[in-house]
Specification:
single chain, mainly beta, four-stranded antiparallel sheet
Length: about 120
């Protein structure tokens, strides 16, 4: 059974920082592409950041320069460091794993709320 367990969400003031973590189990992690997505109420889920098995990264334009995705294969964990947070970053953040096309897995989501 594949399981993704997220942690690190919470309430912060604008300009603050949070680090989200996602620990994967039940599947080979080191060869998987990992991503962070977010969804605000009434909006579509959007890709925030992605990191491949080789360490290549992609970011949404809205978070470039503020967020950093990284992975620790020894811990089967992917991180999202979020700096200079803005109220518009408020959303439920989801961890996702792609083992291969058509085999995607999702975490339960963690709430990030940024107050002005």
């Amino acid at each position: 059974q594949v399981q993704l367990v997220e942690s690190g969400g919470g309430l912060v003031q604008a300009g603050g920082s949070l680090r989200l973590s996602c620990a994967a189990s039940g599947i080979t992690f080191r060869i998987s592409t990992m991503g962070w997505y977010r969804q605000a109420p009434g909006k579509q889920r959007e890709l925030v950041a992605r990191i491949t098995s080789s360490g290549n990264t992609n970011y949404a334009d809205s978070v470039k320069g503020r967020f950093t995705i990284s992975r620790d294969n020894a811990k089967n964990t992917v991180y999202l460091q979020m700096n200079s947070l803005k109220p518009e970053d408020t959303a439920v953040y989801y961890c996702a794993l792609r083992a291969f096309p058509g085999a995607d897995y999702w975490g339960q989501g963690t709430q990030v709320t940024v107050s002005s």
